[in-house]
Amino acid sequence: MPTEPLSQKDIEDRLLELPGWSLEGDRIARAYRLSSHFAATAMVVHIAQIQDELNHHSDLTLGYNTLALSVNSHDAGGAVTEKDFDLAQRVEQIAPGHGAS
C-alpha cells in the first residue's frame, strides 16, 4: 500500500520541528557544514545505514566539508510523506552539534 502524501500545512508544521530543513519543490532538504571532508564522508556512511534500516533513501551530495540531503517518497508519486520526516529526524539525531554523541 502506498504511503499517503502530507498536506502543505502538515509539511509546514513538521518543518517547524526540524530547524535547518526546508521544502524545496517536492522534497524536504537540508545542508550540513562539517569540520572536514572526512567528517562529511563519515556522515554519509551513517546516513546510508539509517536509510537501509528504514528502507527509505534520499539523494545525498558530498562536497569538501559539506553534505546536502533531499528526500521525497517515490511510492507516493514523489510527494513528501511521514517517511521523509522519519528519515530527517533520524539524520538530525546523528548530525554533529545536533544531539549526536
Poorly predicted parts: none
Quote the beta fraction.
15-25%
Helix content: 25-40%
- How far the N terminus sits from the C terminus, by CA atoms, comes to 36 Å
**Main sheet: strand order:** 1-2-4-3
Q: Main beta sheet: strand number and arrangement?
A: 4 strands, antiparallel
By DSSP (H or I, 4+ residues per run), the number of helices equals 3
Give the total of beta strands: 4
> What is the string of SSEs from the N terminus onward?
HEEHEEH
Shape: globular
The whole-angstrom Rg is: 13 Å
What would you call the structural class? alpha+beta
Average pLDDT: 94
Task: Walk me through this protein's architecture.
- By secondary structure, this protein is of the alpha+beta class.
- Helices cover 40% and strands 20% of the residues.
- It has three helices and four strands; from the N terminus they run H-E-E-H-E-E-H.
- It has helices spanning 8-16, 37-54, 82-94; strands spanning 22-24, 27-33, 59-62, 66-71.
- It has a four-stranded antiparallel sheet with strand order 1-2-4-3.
- Strand 1 and strand 2 form a beta hairpin.
- Helix 2 (37-54) runs antiparallel to helix 3.
- The mean pLDDT is 94.
List descriptors.
101 residues, alpha+beta, 4-stranded antiparallel beta sheet, 3 helices, 20% strand, globular
Strand-helix topology:
Layout: H1 8-16, E1 22-24, E2 27-33, H2 37-54, E3 59-62, E4 66-71, H3 82-94
Antiparallel strand pairs: 1-2, 2-4, 3-4
A few lines on this structure:
The protein is of the alpha+beta class and 101 residues long. Helices cover 40% and strands 20% of the residues. The chain is globular, with a radius of gyration of 13 Å.
